[in-house]
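Box 3.1 A note on notation
Throughout this textbook, protein chains are presented in two layers. The first layer is the amino acid sequence; the second is a token string describing backbone geometry. Keep the layers aligned when reading.
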Amino acid sequence: MPASSPAAHPSPPLIRAAGQGHPSPRSGPPRLACSILAAVRAVRLRLGLCLACLSAGAAWASGPEGLPVCVVRQADETVEAAIRRHPVGPEELLARLAFAEGISTEFGEDPLVYRGIAWGVMNRVRLAEVSAQMRQRFGQGIAGVIFRRGQFNPAISPRSPFAKDFLCPRDPQRWRLAVQAAAQANAGDANPLIQTEWERTQGISLVVNFYYPGSTQAKGPLAPWEASPGLAFIGPVEIDGQVLGAERIRFYRLSRPPADLSGRKR
């Protein structure tokens, strides 16, 4: 949403009492009071417009075609340090990760891929909010989860071929898909990965691991943790009435809730 020009929202006219004619040039106090009131109203109007823009995501610094700021990493700088030099908010950070990871799957044209990734990340964030055990494992908050060591290569490894996509998204169409996915997952409504009775009761998903079989970085068609007793492959996932196939993203659910959540009541 472009910033509104002051000319587009003129100040309201002076308020006059019933039966009052045009104010006299010598009527100092009434004219001053009306001018102050008009100025206050104009400021409140502009503040309301600014807040509306912020809530719509206009606070994200953007360049041509709605793309975000291109972050340039210094030679001895980590990806995280480069990002933190800029005013990148949590939802934009989530969109950047969904963008880079989505491209890395080799199915970057599929909107469901970005949504699946964003939901998977937010599942970690929300589970860590209520479980100290998961917080220690995954980190805290969107930034804590995304920059957790050993998790998402585009966000932690300058050598990752997809780090440049995380720092500097340049594909407008795919960026829009990532932004939409991030907004939806961050809002948290209708999580497609809440499927079991425990998850529905708690309002939290235990689907926190995901793997991209088609990625150039994949170590094989199955995830290294495929046979882990602590995780269970859940198969294809339905998102917004469409099926995201396991050949694109393989999702895994914790075999049981974290120990520190046993007996938890929502």
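The beta strands are 207-211, 231-233, 237-239, 242-244, 250-254. Confidence is low (pLDDT under 50) at residues 1-30, 37-59.
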